[in-house]
Design goal:
- The protein is mainly α and 188 residues long.
- It has one domain: Four Helix Bundle (Hemerythrin (Met), subunit A).
- Helix content is 59%, strand content 4%.
- The protein contains 8 helices and 2 strands.
- The chain has a two-stranded antiparallel ribbon.
- Helix 1 runs parallel beside helix 5, helix 2 runs parallel beside helix 4 and helix 2 runs antiparallel to helix 5.
Length: 188
Amino acid sequence: MNDLTELFGRSADLFDERVRAVGDDQWDNGTPCTEWSVQDLVNHLTNECLWIPPLMGGQTIEEVGDRFDGDCLGDDPVGSWADAVATARAAASETGALDRTVNLSFGNVPGHVYIGQVFTDLLVHSWDLARSIGFDEALPRDLMEVAYEGAKGYEKELRDSGVFGDKVEVAPGASFQEEFLGFFGRRS
């Protein structure tokens, strides 16, 4: 399980690198998530990271309530993101955290399942953010392989939830990254 904590951290590092590269004039840029601007995308993952400590600490969704609804970035998007991801890393790294039961909207799951989902979300959205701000779009193959294999196990749930777009078929001979992104509804 320690490997998953490392993968989560590396995926968070990728997203962090891109957040820190957002220019002052790029926060309103569109993203591959067509309903979101760059600011909305960063807010989404900041929000997701804010949920990790209470959920990993045993609180239910009902107990957390609406405390993270709305704008989580305020006047300091980069700083707000950095604070949220730091607390998320700490919570995910606690001894036994990945074996705890976590209450999610679709039921109770082991902590490693939850952190695996957030790891995948960070990874895919790292590409989205890079595309949006003109940053290097390359993703580490080993991270993509783990995320891809994990997500294949719950593809129906992913598609049904609307969390990711419809699968995009890629041309024969496409790169692994193109195949990975296509699985998550992205055209690279």
